[in-house]
Give the backbone structure.
Amino acid sequence: MVYDSIANASIPTAVSNPKEIGKKKRVNRTAKLKQCKLDARREQWLSQVKNKGFKEENKGDVRAKMPASDMHASNEGDRSLVKLVINPGGEENDGLMNHYSDWESPSNSPTSHTSSLGSNRSVANFTGSSSRSSSSSSGGCYSESMTEEDDGDDGCLDDWEAIADALAADDIKNNHNPNPDSTTASSELEPVETIKEDQEDSHAQVNHRAWRPDDAYRPQGLPNLLKQNSFPMNSDRHYKNVGFAFAPSTCPICCEDLDLTDTSFLPCPCGYRLCLFCHKRILEDNGRCPGCRKLYEQHAEQGIAASKLGRSHSMIPRR
Amino acid sequence: MVDFSRVQKELQECNRDINVSGISVNPKSDNLTNLIGTIPGPIGTPYEGGTFKIDINLPDGYPFEPPKMKFATKVWHPNISSQSGAICLDILKDQWSPALTLKTALLSIQALLSAPEPDDPQDAVVAQQYLKDYQTFASTARYWTESFAKTSSLGVEEKVQKLVEMGFPEGLVRSTLEVVGGDENMALEKLCSG
């Protein structure tokens, strides 16, 4: 999904000469890296906010019995809608802000519990506006998950599976994976599938490639998430899929945790790992790998590396 | 801006195995840019038995720039200035790597003490002596170690007793020793001047 949006953004800028294309590619790559990081952070942050949201929601349940507070709550819901409509920016930051208000409004207004008509409309409206304004579809589905769950019964599960299916199909398309039911994938997924079968046997068969519990883009509102997450998992797969949540190690330079992008980042053939920030800093400096003192080479597959190397080659004579 | 989270971590890690390495790093002031490192003189060298203090100053670019290190203890060594304590060591200059730490740098300095490089000297006089008359060099280095790097070898009580025997009142001796950090020579100087 993320890749999609970036690709789309770069298409309109017409590129004529081949050098420009190369440059664009590099820029694109760094943009992707940045985007990946941003996305991971946002996911993490959203899940935090969500937890908080649930607590507040419980408080809201109690409050909802009083008609006065009910009025107040629906007013708040409307106000949040106004906020969203005013701020329909397509930028990433704006999207983030919208998500924030998305999360805040259901927790402030227990509207869907009390099921007053006006407030219901507002909920429906702002989910629509958020998916319109933010470029990533995952954000939209998050807000929906919240509102759907407010209804509290399993009747919405069908919708959920449909959304999950659609998103999974989207993912497959993006990954150019022609055969989602390949032997390795299905064997990997097996334990998860059995868990799902136990819990919701009617849907598990239909939805063969549903969300894995450790999928980074899995909607947080899907039921039984916590139960599934608490199951012991293959630690390798765990790290691969949710690097941002369970950072395997820290950057040896800055001692910050390595995130999903950093853990798959291997700038030097000597195998010395470091975070993207430190790598960039070193490229601005002398461009030598901290582990082996060799210059970061072109095969580092990094746009930044390639662009900076020309300069560092001329400054530091190789021995 | 110095990466303080890394410095903090380095201090913790370095002081954890102080019993094994004998190397310690401690903050000199509150801001963690001024530190004091101590290394034991390598066994089998004229520096054996001494404890050498090293002034560490972290530049803003640390760990991407090397820490500034110089001997606070006077040392007789071809690659260390006998006047200023400046150290001639490549990893503290162009061969620094952010993967190195304060501890590994201090370990390298300790290794330099046991393996002088007279062909790339910091102190030309010492280097000449090392090349022309090693025996004199070794005895001078040993004498300097005895005089400057062994102040903490005596216990506090012994120092107090020594100074009291010189005719200073015990209370004054104790407070002066505390002020100068246990260095009996500095305490004696202070007692004589004040």
User: Anything to note?
Assistant: The mean pLDDT of chain A is 54. Chain A touches chain B through 14 residues (CB under 8 Å).
